[in-house]
Amino acid sequence: MTQPEQYVHQPVMLDEVMQMWPTERDGFYIDGTFGRGGHSRALLAWLGPQGRLAGIDRDPQAVATAEALAAEDERFSIHAGRFDCLPDVVAAVGRPLTGILLDLGVSSPQLDDPARGFSFLRDGPLDMRMDPSRGESAAEWLARAEEHDIANVLYRYGEEKRSRAIARRIVAERERQPLDTTLALAGLIESVLGRGQPGKHPATRSFQAIRIHVNQELEALEQVLEQAQACLAPGGRLAVISFHSLEDRQVKLFLRDAEGRRPQPRGLPLPPQPVLMRSLGKARLAGADEIARNPRSRSAVLRVAEKV
Ligand SMILES: C[S@@+](CC[C@H](N)C(=O)[O-])C[C@H]1O[C@@H](n2cnc3c(N)ncnc32)[C@H](O)[C@@H]1O
């Protein structure tokens, strides 16, 4: 697992996060997606001497980077695992939670390392697990899944219109030989869909879908949003950066319900809904300068809410 030598990490929408972040420098904060620590380092530079920051990540490489940071800075601790271990982290630190940041999805080093199997541009084992020590790899899942389950995943998580044709071809191909490299899968998808549009590989949507499924990304997000609402102290803030419409929709619907705005079924008036969170402004997008510097920020959407 190598990292490109010239890799420079640019935390996405850092200025916008800091503008909306709580003002209590000696509070307790969680970075639920430590990654390579870009946001965490900026938060530590801002944090006061009595402040605490706990990082969470399920990726062993991210955890190794964070352990080095924890050895340098006693205000910081790292917790390996899925971010929906949030209540355990809060209990371990034992302080009221002032803020939580989630910068969702995969990190650039994960995408760029062929050995992790996330990239359809570089050949590697078809893995795609953020934590390679747990669960099934993409190759293991594709080797055993029913055709209709593969089609459903491609449709639901990738919004892939030709999901059935791709699933059919995967099932036919795996009878002939194992489908266990990224380029074998990317080539198979291209053979079904053709070359696609310029600048967008035809395998983009399917790779996104399989990655979301293998890592149970939307299940973990659903859990952590509920937990954040329950664990935050009153006035504490939740900041979420999403990178695709499925994640952002989930955050938006969670906030709608937490703000007591769930649509009422017709003819069946419900009691008034409790107001648990308050959105701080509308969803924000990265600015043109950041997008020019860091193209990955192009699809970022930031939502921030405060516990009431
Ligand atoms: C976009 S990167 C975060 C980058 C980070 N903000 C930075 O500045 O370096 C997302 C990170 O979150 C981790 N991650 C994604 N989903 C997770 C989950 N459900 N539980 C724990 N970690 C997760 C990934 O392993 C990855 O390291």
UniProtKB/TrEMBL annotation:
<keyword id="KW-0808">Transferase</keyword>
<keyword id="KW-0698">rRNA processing</keyword>
<dbReference type="InterPro" id="IPR029063">
    <property type="entry name" value="SAM-dependent_MTases_sf"/>
</dbReference>
<feature type="binding site">
    <location>
        <position position="103"/>
    </location>
    <ligand>
        <name>S-adenosyl-L-methionine</name>
    </ligand>
</feature>
<keyword id="KW-0963">Cytoplasm</keyword>
<protein>
    <recommendedName>
        <fullName>Ribosomal RNA small subunit methyltransferase H</fullName>
        <ecNumber>2.1.1.199</ecNumber>
    </recommendedName>
</protein>
<keyword id="KW-0489">Methyltransferase</keyword>
<dbReference type="InterPro" id="IPR023397">
    <property type="entry name" value="SAM-dep_MeTrfase_MraW_recog"/>
</dbReference>
<dbReference type="GO" id="GO:0032259">
    <property type="term" value="P:methylation"/>
</dbReference>
<dbReference type="Pfam" id="PF01795">
    <property type="entry name" value="Methyltransf_5"/>
</dbReference>
<comment type="function">
    <text>Specifically methylates the N4 position of cytidine in position 1402 (C1402) of 16S rRNA.</text>
</comment>
<keyword id="KW-0949">S-adenosyl-L-methionine</keyword>
<feature type="binding site">
    <location>
        <position position="83"/>
    </location>
    <ligand>
        <name>S-adenosyl-L-methionine</name>
    </ligand>
</feature>
<feature type="binding site">
    <location>
        <position position="57"/>
    </location>
    <ligand>
        <name>S-adenosyl-L-methionine</name>
    </ligand>
</feature>
<comment type="similarity">
    <text>Belongs to the methyltransferase superfamily. RsmH family.</text>
</comment>
<feature type="binding site">
    <location>
        <position position="110"/>
    </location>
    <ligand>
        <name>S-adenosyl-L-methionine</name>
    </ligand>
</feature>
<dbReference type="GO" id="GO:0008168">
    <property type="term" value="F:methyltransferase activity"/>
</dbReference>
<feature type="binding site">
    <location>
        <begin position="37"/>
        <end position="39"/>
    </location>
    <ligand>
        <name>S-adenosyl-L-methionine</name>
    </ligand>
</feature>
<dbReference type="InterPro" id="IPR002903">
    <property type="entry name" value="RsmH"/>
</dbReference>
